[in-house]
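Structure ticket #2291
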Amino acid sequence: MHTFLDFEKPIAELEGKIKELRHVSASGEEINIADEIGRLQNKVEKLLQNTYAKLTPWQKTQVARHPERPHTQNYIDNLIEDFTPLAGDRLYGEDCAIIGGLGRFEGHSVVIIGHEKGHTTETRVKHNFGMARPEGYRKAIRLMEMAENFNLPIITFVDTAGAFPGADAEERGQSEAIARSIEKCLQVKVPLTSLIIGEGGSGGAIAIACGNDVYMLEHSIYSVISPEGCASILWRSNDYTESAADALNITAQDLHRLGIIDDIIKEPLGGAHRNPQDIYKNVRETLDKSISEQLKHDGGVLKARRREKFLAMGRVSAA
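Resolution: structure written out below.
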């Protein structure tokens, strides 16, 4: 049974009725309810289509944060063969909020780096809800350097509310580590493809998201600050969270229109969590095309194109 979001209550009620009817059918009672179940299922699908065709930015934020949405480890398990996790930054310690390692994707040896939020209480605590400390970004730098040394394409999965804001992280140089990670993304002379699969929050996200190709899942978000954080700063009240989400241009559709990302990966109806196998298929096709295209070019060309791509953002032509 899915976890339903606030705006999905009508869908939840219909699916609850379908579940009750199936229970009645399974009990062996002489009632033909197949037609009724089919009618309700059609109604659910139409309601899903109508609801998800007009999601507000705040509703998309809720979908991006859905507790059952596939995370980096799920994509690794379903897309990467022979994955070997690598730990530690060789400077301080291990940070489980960012996971990474070596593996094979569609015949290519690759380096994978991504935020991991965890799905259960235990794993969420272990991965610090996907909010990395400096050692997480320094581990990412180490893995990117390894990829360059062995001429391996890099795939990054972005899914974080932001870098961890705790005092211990600041004491160990959080902002410097993020800046160095962004710098390394822009310097490596190997293919680099980044996917925002859930939340892309602030510097904590862009630290591993400066790729030659940057894609967003249809209902993911990418922002300089969370809607809640923006509302608390500008209005000093969470009552304006939805207004902040509207103003921030955080949706994949907004960012594609503004030229911040390269393309949008379509999600199954109702979000990636409703049919993970479909999203894995779509991501596989997108990644395969991206890496194959980038491998046609010299490392110096890849670095120069990546640099120009990000320098061009925000430029305004003189009238």
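Closing remark: The chain has two domains: 6-54, 61-311.
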